[in-house]
Design a protein that fits this description.
15 helices; 37% helix; Glycosyltransferase; 559 residues; binds 2-acetamido-2-deoxy-beta-D-glucopyranose; Immunoglobulin-like; 4-stranded antiparallel sheet; Glyco_hydro_9_Asp/Glu_AS; 5-stranded antiparallel sheet; single chain
C-alpha cells in the first residue's frame, strides 16, 4: 500500500518536473502557441442567468487575442469586461470576442481569465467551450537569399541585407496592397488620401515609424535607391532581388506621378505630423484627418520639386518609361544632374554646374545633396574642381579630420539617426572609389561604417532589424508594434516592454550615441526610429559592396 503510494508520488514528481521543463523550454524557445481550447467553468446560475469563466494558462507572452465560444444552448445579453464583440451567430450559440485595447498584454506564466454573465434559454444552464486564438505575431519567414557562388568571402551576408532592406520598404507601403504583398501583417490603408477636388493620392511610402507621407524624403529615397541599382545592377541580379527591387521603387514612383497633378502643381505631403504622432496604432486603422499639401507657382518649394524631378529622372533611367517632370527645376544641382543623365541635354548639365556649391560637404541627407552632386558631376565632366571637393570632404570625414568619431569607430555627424549619416557618406565613398579616387582607402572606410551598422561595433550587435547578431527588437515603428489584425492596437503597444510582435526585417535604426551606447527602447525615436531615408543610401551601399565581392574587388582592409 505504502509502496504503491510512493511509486505514484515519484511518478507524479517526474511528471511535474517534465511539465516544468517543457514549459521552461517553451518559454526559452518561444514555442508558437497553438490555439488553446478549455471548458467554461460555470460559477453560478439562478433563474435564467448564468455566470461563467474561461481560464487559459499562458506559455508565451501575448499582445492580442480572440476568444471563440460555443455554448450548448442559446445565450444572450452577455456582459463581460475584457473584450469587444467581433461576431455573434444568429442562433446565439457562437460568439467571438476580441480583446479590448487595454486588455491585450499578458505575460507567459500567468493565466488569462475571462469572466462573463448572461441569460440562457431552456431549463439547463449552459456548458461551453472557449478557444483562445493568439493574435500576437505573424508567421512571416524570409526565404534564404541566393548568394552568388563565385564571389569573395564576406564577413556579412550582403545579399541577405539587400533582401531584407527591400522587405522593409514593402512594410512601408501605403494604399491598396497588391496580391503579391509579402508582409503578412500589413493590409490596405489610407485609401482616402486625396488632394483638392478629390484627386487620388493613395499609395507611396509611410515616412518612418509614423504614417505621414512626405514627398521630399520619399523622392530622395527613390533617387538614392535607383542610383545604387543603376551603378550596381549585378548585385541585385545575382542575388535574385532584381524583380523585387524594381517593384519596390515603382511603388513610390507611381505615387509621385499622381502627385504631379498639373503643370505647376505638385502635392508634397499627405497627413499632418501633429495628429499623426498623437496616434499609436496601425495605418489600417487610422481615423484622423489626413490633409494634403501642395506647392504651386504662388507657393513654391524648389527643393521638393527638384528632388521629385530627380526621382523621376532616376526612375526613367531604370524603367525607361516613367515620365519626367521638369517644370520648376531650374535652380538645383541635384535635379539638374539627374535630368542630364535621363535626357543627355547639355542645358541640364550646365544647370547643375551653375548651381554647384563648392567646398567640403557637411554630409549627405534628404535635405543636403551636395556630396551626391559632386560625385556625379565628376563622373560626367572629369573636372578636377569636383574631385578636389570630394577629396577635401573625405579628408574631413575620415579619422583625423573634423568629424568626431565614437570610440568604436563610427563617424558621428549628428545624434539623430547617427548611423544614417555615416552610411550615407559610405555610399558616396564607394561611388568616388569607382571613379578612381583612392579606391582602396575609400572602400575600406566605407566598409568600416557599413560593418559598424551590421555588427562590428562595441555592442557587438546589428543595427538592422531581423539581421545578424542581437538586432533591435523594439524599433519605434507603429505598425510592427501592433498585434495581428483585427486585434486593437494603441499606446499599450508602444509602452509594451516586449519585442515588437512583427519583425520589421531590414530596417536600419537610428543607432547609438557618440559613446557607442544604445538601448533597444521603442519610445526612443532618436536612436530607435527607422525611416525610408535611413535605408536608402544604406541599401545602395550594401549593393555596392556585394557587387565588389562579385567582381573580386573587395580590398583587404587589414593590410
Ligand atoms: C463552434 O461553432 C462554430 C460556428 O458554428 C463552428 O465553426 C466551430 O467548429 C465550433 N467549435 C467547437 C469547438 O465546437
Ligand atoms: C482595423 O483594420 C482591420 C483591417 O482593415 C480591420 O479588420 C479591423 O476591424 C479594424 N479595427 C478597427 C478597430 O477598426
Ligand atoms: C570646372 O568646374 C568649375 C566649377 O563649376 C568651373 O568653374 C570650371 O570652369 C570648370 N573647368 C573646366 C575646365 O571646365
Ligand atoms: C564583443 O565581442 C568581442 C569579441 O568576441 C569581445 O571581446 C567583447 O567583449 C564583446 N563585447 C561585448 C560588449 O559583448
Amino acid at each position: 500500500m505504502f509502496g504503491n503510494s510512493l511509486k505514484i508520488y515519484i511518478l507524479l514528481c517526474i511528471f511535474k518536473s517534465t511539465l516544468v521543463i517543457l514549459s521552461v523550454l517553451c518559454v526559452v524557445l518561444s514555442c508558437a502557441s497553438a490555439d488553446q481550447t478549455v471548458q467554461m467553468k460555470l460559477l453560478q446560475h439562478w433563474d435564467n442567468n448564468f455566470e461563467g469563466q474561461f481560464s487559459f494558462p499562458l506559455q508565451t507572452n501575448i499582445v492580442g487575442w480572440e476568444l471563440k465560444m460555443n455554448f450548448s444552448v442559446s445565450v444572450s445579453n452577455i456582459q463581460q469586461w475584457d473584450g469587444d464583440w467581433y461576431y455573434q451567430s444568429p442562433d446565439g450559440r457562437y460568439y467571438v470576442l476580441l480583446n479590448k485595447d487595454t486588455k491585450g498584454l499578458h505575460a507567459a506564466g500567468t493565466t488569462l481569465t475571462v469572466r462573463m454573465m448572461g441569460v440562457f434559454s431552456g431549463n439547463t444552464a449552459p456548458s461551453a467551450t472557449g478557444t483562445l486564438v493568439d493574435l500576437s505575431g505573424d508567421s512571416q519567414t524570409v526565404p534564404p537569399v541566393h548568394v552568388p557562388n563565385s564571389m569573395q568571402h564576406t564577413q556579412y551576408n550582403y545579399a541577405e541585407v539587400l533582401e531584407k532592406s527591400i522587405l522593409f520598404y514593402e512594410a512601408q507601403r501605403s494604399g491598396k496592397l497588391p496580391a503579391n504583398n509579402r508582409i503578412p501583417w500589413r493590409g490596405d490603408s489610407a485609401l482616402h488620401d486625396q488632394g483638392d477636388n478629390g484627386v487620388d493620392l493613395t499609395g507611396g511610402w509611410y515616412d518612418a515609424g509614423d504614417h505621414v507621407k512626405f514627398g521630399l524624403p520619399m523622392a530622395y529615397s527613390v533617387t538614392m535607391l535607383a542610383w545604387g541599382l543603376l551603378e550596381w545592377k549585378q548585385a541585385y541580379e545575382q542575388s535574385g532581388q532584381l524583380q523585387y527591387m524594381l517593384d519596390s521603387i515603382k511603388w513610390p514612383l507611381d505615387y509621385l506621378l499622381k502627385c504631379h497633378t498639373a503643370e505647376h502643381e505638385l502635392y508634397v505631403q499627405v497627413g499632418d505630423g501633429g495628429p499623426d504622432h498623437g496616434y499609436w496604432g496601425r495605418p489600417e486603422n487610422m481615423t484622423m484627418a489626413r490633409p494634403s499639401f501642395k506647392i504651386t507657382e504662388s507657393k513654391p518649394g524648389s527643393d521638393v520639386a527638384g528632388e521629385t524631378a530627380a526621382a523621376m529622372a532616376a526612375g526613367y533611367l531604370v524603367f525607361t518609361s516613367v515620365s519626367k517632370s521638369n517644370d520648376y527645376v531650374d535652380d538645383l544641382c541635384w535635379a539638374g544632374i539627374w535630368l542630364y543623365q535621363a535626357t543627355k541635354e547639355a542645358k541640364y548639365l550646365h544647370d547643375a554646374e551653375t548651381h554647384y556649391q563648392p567646398g567640403s560637404a557637411w554630409g549627405l541627407s534628404w535635405d543636403d545633396k551636395q556630396a551626391g552632386c559632386f560625385a556625379l558631376l565628376y563622373k560626367f565632366t572629369h573636372n578636377n574642381t569636383y574631385k578636389e571637393d570630394i577629396v577635401q570632404t573625405f579628408h574631413d570625414w575620415m579619422p583625423g579630420g573634423t568629424i568626431p568619431y565614437s570610440p568604436g569607430g563610427l563617424a558621428f555627424r549628428l545624434q539623430w539617426g547617427a548611423l544614417r549619416y555615416a552610411v550615407n557618406m559610405g555610399l558616396i565613398a564607394l561611388m568616388a572609389a569607382d571613379l578612381g579616387i583612392s579606391p582602396k582607402q575609400y572602400r575600406c572606410w566605407a566598409i568600416s561604417q557599413f560593418h559598424y551598422a551590421l555588427g562590428s561595433n562595441p555592442q557587438n550587435r546589428s543595427y538592422v532589424v531581423g539581421f545578424g547578431n542581437n538586432p533591435p527588437q523594439r524599433p519605434h515603428h507603429r505598425s510592427s508594434s501592433c498585434p495581428m489584425i483585427p486585434a486593437p492596437c494603441g499606446w499599450d503597444e508602444q509602452t509594451n516592454t516586449g519585442p515588437n510582435p512583427h519583425v520589421l526585417y531590414g530596417a536600419l535604426v537610428g543607432g547609438p550615441d557618440q559613446n557607442d551606447v544604445y538601448v533597444d527602447d521603442r519610445k526612443d525615436y532618436v536612436k530607435n526610429e527607422v525611416a525610408c531615408d535611413y535605408n536608402a543610401a544604406f541599401q545602395s551601399g550594401i549593393a555596392g559592396l556585394l557587387e565588389l565581392a562579385i567582381r573580386n574587388q573587395l580590398p583587404d582592409c587589414q593590410h
